[in-house]
Design brief:
The complex is a heterodimer of chains A (about 280) and B (about 280). Chain A has about 280 residues and is mainly α. In chain A, about 70% of the residues lie in helices and about 0% in strands. In chain A, α2 packs antiparallel against α3. Chain A is globular, with a radius of gyration of 20 Å. Chain B is an all-alpha fold and about 280 residues long. Helices cover about 70% and strands about 0% of the residues of chain B. Chain B has a two-stranded antiparallel ribbon. In chain B, β1 and β2 form a beta hairpin. The longest helix of chain B is centred in the middle third of the chain and has 32 residues. The radius of gyration of chain B is 20 Å and the shape is globular. The relative contact order of chain B is 0.12. The chains are: A mainly alpha (about 280), B mainly alpha (about 280). Chains A and B meet through α2, α4 and α9 of A and α3 and α8 of B.
Chain lengths: ~280, ~280
């Protein structure tokens, strides 16, 4: 196959994905009340995290040696990463339901990668609310920040947010791989989301070293926003890991996502349906 | 044996069977029970570390010292477990029954849907209460939770907790009943979970929040579910003030009971078996 043919096929497949997304969006608009509530869901989830964070910052100044402005940067980067994850890759979180309802089975015979079909299953209206609040908080964090926003720092923020999105996607993709064989994974998925909401937005230095290490190497939520924000705000040396590892967060996010996709593909190969 | 006694015995037997669906289902799924134990253990450890870390540089905040804050946070995690069941995995949520059309069976059984719903909820809450008791005993034994300051406080807390569970039962029922009218309302369910967690004080005691937030919460039923009983337990609400709060809990129960009863009557007229 020539490069030109490959390119045409690539563009065609993404044109199809775009058309399906537009149709999904229209389908969600059919239930107007649910559509608006969906936006509100994302916004309220993010606002509840902001309220909790502001309570902690007001009542307990100097969280783990970080100023409130720096903590705000962690929280806003995590929220942006989460909003983008929900928008582009979040449907993988509903894998257990798709397996239970047998929706995965027809995906196996359609001429499109199964992972992409799962992502195109419906339009995530709540991502709109998530991103609106996240962008608002991010702008507020930038305004309060005294950092000099050079081109290098701007590029690193962008890479950090995308890396954070990929870490979150990697964790949920790994859980989705398990859902092919054990569909009752929603319990773990809810817990993971709760953990990220509660502990992903604050400096992990407030926790004991063993717990902080667990959030770095077992459930790597430190790579979502804590490390990238720490690098940007000059906390690189006191985050409990070599600074180079913290700097490499965006690359680690990419590597984690690739690994989770390989695990997902392997699990898909072993899928036999929930009824055996 | 008279006909009335026989009828009462049959009703009791049915009730026992329905209420035991949840415990029996869970006992048949050891991996889920292991996951529950693990999740509770980790979550309790995390909140203990978090609140001890926050209090590292201060003795008291919002009228709560470290011991009170940690006790509150641990009890909140445990109490949250009461309604943390994964009924979705068993396709046994009201929204799923409406979606699949199986809700019609609720109206064909020799028991009213309202009573069936109440008995299922009772089974859920009793089962969850078993976990809470085990977690509480363990937390007390290792010293991360302190016992109530007196028998009087313990008794008032027990009554308030029971009232709180009743308020929670009616709030959850209200959202389930909403499904009869909206058909698609996953977003409303999620918003309720966020609101419940935030406004009842699961994330953090309401005492830390700004005055406007506490005033807003006073007009909603959520703080009556958990915030009030736990504040009584840790001594943030004195026994004398507790009776006023318990009267408010009672008012919420009466209002919600009347409203949900009215809704049940109307919901039955709207049952639609989707798909024919």
């Amino acid at each position: 196959m020539t490069t030109r043919t490959t390119m045409t096929a690539f563009l065609h497949s993404w044109r199809v994905a775009w058309r399906i997304t537009r149709l999904n969006f229209k389908a969600r608009l059919e239930y107007r009340g649910e559509f608006l509530l969906g936006i509100a869901t994302g916004a309220i989830w993010q606002v509840s995290i902001i309220v909790f964070a502001s309570v902690l910052l007001t009542r307990f100044p100097g969280l783990g040696g970080w100023s409130s402005t720096d903590v705000l940067l962690i929280a806003s980067m995590r929220m942006l990463a989460h909003g983008l994850y929900v928008l582009f890759l979040g449907r993988v979180q509903y894998m257990n339901i798709l397996v239970q309802e047998g929706i995965v089975d027809p995906c196996l015979i359609r001429p499109m990668p199964v992972y992409r079909q799962i992502q195109l299953n419906f339009f995530p209206v709540n991502a709109i609310g998530d991103l609106v609040v996240a962008v608002g908080l991010f702008v507020a964090a930038l305004q309060r920040s005294s950092l000099d926003w050079t081109a290098g720092r701007i590029a690193y923020v962008v890479a950090g947010v995308i890396g954070g999105m990929l870490v979150e996607a990697a964790l949920f993709t790994a859980l989705a791989a398990a859902a092919f064989h054990f569909p009752a994974t929603s319990y773990w998925s809810q817990w993971l989301e709760e953990l990220m909401g509660t502990f992903g937005s604050y400096p992990l230095s407030i926790l004991p070293k063993a717990v902080s290490a667990a959030f770095t190497f077992v459930v790597p939520l430190a790579f979502i926003a804590y490390f990238p924000a720490g690098v940007l705000t000059g906390h690189g040396g006191d985050m409990g890991v070599p600074e180079a590892l913290a700097v490499a967060s965006p690359l680690i996010g990419l590597a984690a996502f690739v690994l989770s996709r390989l695990l997902w593909n392997w699990s898909l190969g072993k899928y036999t349906g929930v009824n055996g | 044996m008279t006909a009335n006694t026989a009828s009462t015995m049959t009703l009791l037997s049915r009730g026992r069977h329905i209420a035991s669906i949840t415990p029996r289902g869970e006992l048949l799924a050891p991996p889920r029970m292991t996951a529950t134990a693990l999740r509770l253990l980790v979550q309790v450890c995390l909140v203990v570390y978090l609140w001890r870390g926050l209090y590292a540089h201060t003795d008291s905040s919002a009228g709560l010292d470290e011991t009170q804050a940690v006790t509150y946070a641990v009890l909140a995690v445990l109490a949250n477990r009461i309604r943390g069941l994964d009924r979705r995995a068993g396709r046994d949520t009201v929204i799923q029954h409406l979606h699949f059309g199986t809700i019609v069976y609720w109206y064909l059984r020799p028991m009213s849907p309202r009573r069936y719903y109440a008995l299922r909820a009772l089974g859920d809450q009793l089962y969850g209460f078993g976990w809470v008791l085990a977690g509480y005993a363990l937390s007390l034994a290792v010293g991360i939770v302190v016992p109530p300051s007196s028998y009087e406080v313990a008794a008032v807390f027990a009554v308030s907790m029971l009232l709180g569970q009743l308020v929670l039962y009616y709030v959850m029922m209200l959202v389930d009943l909403l499904c009869f009218w909206t058909l698609r309302n996953e977003s409303a369910l999620l918003i309720l979970v966020f609101a419940q967690n935030l406004l009842s004080g699961v994330y953090a005691p309401l005492w830390y929040f700004p005055d406007w937030f506490i005033t807003l919460s006073a007009f909603l039923p959520f703080q009556a579910t958990l915030g009030v009983p736990l504040s009584i337990y840790v001594g943030r609400i004195g026994v004398d003030d507790a009776f006023v709060q318990m009267a408010v809990q009672g008012v919420w129960i009466v209002l919600l009971a009347l409203f949900t009863r009215w809704l049940w009557d109307r919901a039955g007229r709207r049952v639609v078996a989707q798909g024919g």
